[in-house]
Each structure stands twice: as structure tokens, then as C-alpha cells.
Design a protein that fits this description.
Helix content: under 10%
Number of helices: 0
Oligomer: single chain
Low-confidence stretches: none
Largest sheet: 9 strands, antiparallel
Order of helices and strands: EEEEEEEEEEEEE
Strand order of the largest sheet: 1-2-3-4-9-10-11-12-13
Distance between the termini: 55 Å
Shape: elongated
Radius of gyration: 20 Å
Mean pLDDT: 92
């Protein structure tokens, strides 16, 4: 079975810092973020687990609390909710708690959490952290023994991540990470590595 390739989804996110308070050597910040994503192409969401996405619109909202001590050690806690829409299939029949004659598949909503601890090193040139994440759908069905996975499945996962980020020059960072699925439901117990490059710019002068 061949995998799928191509453009996945277009995502727009906004993040607002509601609280930023300094207390002696500590900093506490509270952020709220929200966003929307939609499929960028008409890719087929029915190729799971080889597919590139679920093929549905999604609204998300998250709250993030951040505590930093002495410009080094920090902790972060996140909670989020993902409201998902419908996938459009290339077939007009599927089974979810009974036979359905439709091309539109309801994709379950998701509750996400994250707890991370880390440290800034070398005057914030290096960032290192470990995190525990949960991804729990609020509904959905199980993969049937004689069927392939589909976007309506209840996909729950608990995973651990290690992340490393290096700032060689101002506004530019190189990052890498490792993740491992500890346990779950209707998901594979897998491990993965990732690398990335970011550039950060400001719309107003920093003080």
C-alpha cells in the first residue's frame, strides 16, 4: 500500500499574552491562543494511516501558563480543545455504529494537554525541555478487525517528547526533537525524530 503525498492544510493562529508578571527572580505569563485550519487541497482522508491528514475544517482554542525562574528553569502547562468538522470521502458508504450512506464523515473533537519542564542555557542561546502530552477524542468508534482506520475513529494517545533549540544568531533558531507514544487507543506505538528552522520577526520595536 503506497503512502500519500502533497499539500496538507492551511492554518491561521493567533496568540495573546493576557498576563505577564515579574516577581523577584521569577516571571509568570498566561497566554490564550486560537486558530482555524482547512484542507489546502482535495487530498483523500481515507488512506489512514498512510494519509496526510483528516480532511476536515478545525477550530482550536488553547490556554497556556508559563513560569520561569532566574531566566533559566521553566515550566509550562497547556490545555486545549479542537472542534472538528466533516471529512469528504471518495466513497458514499461507511460504517460508524451502523451503516451510513453518505460521503461526509463526522470527525471527533479533541481535548489536548501538555506539561513541560525545561531550561534556558548560555544566556538563552540554548533551550532544552521534556514534555508529556495527551490527545483524547471526546467521541468516535474503534477500528474494526476487518476494516482500515478512518477519520471517525476514537484516537487517544499519551506521548513523551524531548526538544532542543539553538539560537545561532538573533531571531533565528534551529530545533530538533524526539517523541515516543507511551500508550493509546487506535493509534500506533511509534517513535519519531524531527528537525526545523525558524525565523522570528517583530511588528513593533522591542524594549
Amino acid at each position: 500500500l503506497n503512502g500519500a503525498s502533497g499539500w496538507q492544510d492551511l492554518s491561521i493562529q493567533l496568540k495573546y499574552r493576557a498576563i505577564n508578571k515579574d516577581v523577584k527572580k521569577s516571571v509568570f505569563s498566561l497566554f490564550v491562543s486560537g486558530g482555524y485550519s482547512t484542507p489546502l487541497t482535495s487530498y483523500n482522508p481515507d488512506y489512514l494511516p498512510q494519509g496526510i491528514g483528516l480532511g476536515c475544517d478545525e477550530f482550536n482554542i488553547r490556554s497556556i501558563a508559563y513560569f520561569e525562574y532566574n531566566k533559566a528553569l521553566y515550566a509550562r502547562v497547556m490545555g486545549g480543545y479542537l472542534k472538528r468538522g466533516y471529512s469528504t470521502l471518495e466513497r458514499d458508504f461507511y460504517y460508524v455504529e451502523g451503516s451510513k450512506y453518505s460521503r461526509y464523515l463526522d470527525v471527533p473533537n479533541v481535548v489536548q494537554t501538555e506539561v513541560a519542564i525545561g531550561s534556558w542555557i548560555k544566556d538563552k542561546k540554548i533551550q532544552a525541555e521534556v514534555a508529556l502530552l495527551t490527545h483524547n477524542t471526546v467521541s468516535g468508534d474503534d477500528i474494526r478487525s476487518h476494516s482500515a482506520p478512518q477519520a471517525s475513529n476514537q484516537m487517544d494517545a499519551q506521548s513523551a517528547q524531548v526538544r532542543l533549540r539553538y539560537f545561532p544568531i538573533a531571531n533565528v533558531s534551529v530545533m530538533g526533537g524526539y517523541n515516543y507514544t507511551i500508550s493509546g487507543r487506535n493509534v500506533g506505538q511509534l517513535q519519531g525524530f524531527n528537525v526545523g528552522l525558524t525565523y522570528q520577526f517583530y511588528t513593533r520595536k522591542q524594549v
